[in-house]
Design goal:
Radius of gyration: 18 Å
CATH class: Alpha Beta
Structural class: alpha/beta
Strand content: 25-35%
Distance between the termini: 33 Å
Bound molecules: adenosine-5'-triphosphate
CATH architecture: 3-Layer(aba) Sandwich
Length: 251
């Protein structure tokens, strides 16, 4: 039986009058990669952003239902967003390093969370190793992060998330700005990270979803249409819409 790490229960989201997410119920198993797939505009990124309260600052967003990290209610006002984002990290579509050195990119959140100063170098090395970047940057940690290649910048953004030891990592099309070789490296990285983290990723790339996912969720017009093992969703979809989408008939 899968151990459930993160879950949404009867989740609805509205932007103004418009309902974007419709009664989403989903369980993300621990130490697995789950891909959210579906045609453009179906609500994948909007759903992903619900999991670490990224809509909090959007005045026209209204959410009802519940999201739980194990037993923790993510939307319970007494839980701080900073603490939730430490436990549920996020990596965005475009690599977005701070305009600072590689080292400062890594130390920034550790300082905010008041990790002991003497532990910081070790934590940084370990997260950079875990993110397949250490060997490439160990001699130039003072270099501006923006001077790294796009793929290296994205691995740095992953390392910067990993350094806080989150439980869940959310990724919103993390390879869409990258070339095929950098994309492959990130895919290998995602597969290796799942032994320590639960990963939820939005992807448009069906080959990528098949290469990296344990579970796949297919969404359409704000609804979760089908959720199952990667093999089942791609080889034996139950719903006609899923069948057409994974068969490349629309999207
Ligand atoms: N801040 C916002 N205010 C109003 N509507 C929004 C906002 N953000 C997204 N939407 C709308 O919500 C719907 C879902 O968008 P979302 O970005 O989640 O889809 P998606 O499946 O991730 O699409 P894509 O694959 O193109 O990135 C779209 O109709 C979009 O226009």
């Amino acid at each position: 039986m899968d151990q459930i790490k993160l879950s949404a229960h009867s989740l609805n989201l509205y932007f103004g009058e418009k309902q974007i997410l419709k009664n989403i119920n989903i369980d993300f198993p621990e130490n697995q990669v789950t891909s959210l797939i579906g045609p453009s505009g179906c609500g994948k990124s909007t759903l992903l952003r619900c999991f670490n309260r990224m809509h909090d600052l959007s005045s026209d967003a209204r959410i009802d239902g519940a999201i739980k990290l194990e037993d923790l209610d993510i939307y319970d006002k007494k839980n701080s967003v900073t603490e939730i984002r430490k436990r549920i990290g996020m990596v965005f579509q475009k690599p977005n390093p701070l305009p600072k050195s590689i080292y400062e990119n890594m130390s920034y959140a550790l300082n905010i969370h008041q990790f002991p100063k003497n532990e910081i170098p070790k934590l940084i090395e370990s997260a950079l190793r875990e993110s397949y970047l250490w060997e490439e940057v160990k001699d130039e940690l003072k270099k501006p992060a923006v001077k790294l290649s796009g793929g290296q910048q994205q691995r740095l953004c992953i390392a910067r998330t990993v350094v806080l030891r989150p439980e869940v990592i959310l990724m919103d099309e993390p390879c869409s700005a990258l070339d095929p070789i950098s994309t492959r490296k990130i895919e290998e990285l995602i597969i290796s990270l799942k032994k320590d983290y639960t990963i939820v990723i939005v992807t448009h790339n069906m080959q990528q979803a098949q290469r990296i996912s344990d579970k796949v969720a297919f969404m359409y017009l704000g609804e979760l249409i089908e959720f199952g093992s990667c093999q089942d969703v791609f080889q034996n979809p139950q719903n006609e819409l899923t069948k057409n989408y994974v068969g490349g008939h629309f999207g």
